[in-house]
Amino acid sequence: MADTISYALITPSALRKGRTGGILGRLISRSGLQLETGRIFALSQATLSALAETLSGQSKTAAYLKSLPTGAHSLVVVLKGEEAASKVASIVGGDSTMGGRGETIRDTYGDLVESPEEGGKTVYFEPGVIAPANASEAAAGLKVLAAASDAEGGILDASADFSGPTEKTLVLIKPDNFAFPSTRPGGVIDLFARTGLALVGFKPFHLSVAQGEEFYGPVLDFLVAKLPDGRAQWESIVAFMAGKRPSECTPEEKAAPGSQPCVALIYQGPDAVAKIRTALGPTNPSQAPHGTIRKEFGTTIMINGAHASDSVENVARETAIIRIDENDFKTKVA
Asked: What is the predicted pLDDT for the residue at 180?
């Protein structure tokens, strides 16, 4: 059976309240699907209305989308695999599956309050996450989102959510978290949520060997000076992130996307670089405090869960290398 794609939209409320990691972890681990792409959106009223029209069997959800304020940030993730739409729909749930005990993602992360005194009238509705019910709804919704992905998506700005100056920082969720479908990528995001920063950028990608060489270029001189096999150690880092050692690649192979999946995240807020580095923990997981990402998800100095930029200057350098501003959402859902 051929692979297909579907999507899940993590709502502005869930994104703001740091529920993204839990939602994403369940989607990946329970479905076994591949995280194909994703993008932060600030959808216009026209796009919200058009998206709502594709969800024919979910009247509460359609009305919710139409009621959202223009420009509210949401995250759309696209998953790929056999029967993607039916798998995502069953895991997420819909309007009729929000009265249980956590069986669906909506049961856990959404809220539905009804008034028995008023014949079951809906008092409050917040789905947390939205997914199409079938493949035709998925195709229609993705067409709407792809058309809006340039003008209404990308690396967004959340400075209005904070008082005082803000900065942005880069996180890479490393390939060890994607060895098999699991809650690990979501768990990493969940721990970063405790910083109170805004998640304003999201992009799954495959680092090329050439990008890996440039990204970890500053580490090479340090390792060569400190270790007799410093270059070999450096090549191992690049191979871990991109899938091949630079010395074993042709120029064409170096330029091609690597074999190892990563996810790039952009966080924004006051002292974002320092806050994310604190949540990440020291490079060596054995020295990391409990509750940090590297303590919970790392195993070695190299296989340590995630990377985070160590300065505002390196944020600019590293985001340019991985070309995080490029919109591949539109091409991958076409």
From this structure: 92
List pLDDT tens digits, range 37-69. Answer: 999 999 999 999 999 999 998 999 999 999 999
Whether the model pTM is above 0.85: yes
Rg (Cα) of the chain, in Å, rounded?
21
| Residue type for position 316 | A
Spell out the domains of the chain, with CATH numbers in brackets: 4-148 (3.30.70.141), 159-326 (3.30.70.141)
Question: What letters, b where the CB count within 10 A reaches 16 and e where it falls short, cover 219-233?
Answer: ebeebeeeeeebeeb
- Angle at the Cα of 284 from the Cα atoms of 282 and 285, rounded to 5 degrees: 90
Nearest CA-CA partner of 191 in 13, 9, 18: 18
Hey, which residues are catalytic here? 307
CA distance 149 to 203: 13
SS3 content of the chain, % helix, strand, coil (to 5): 45, 20, 35
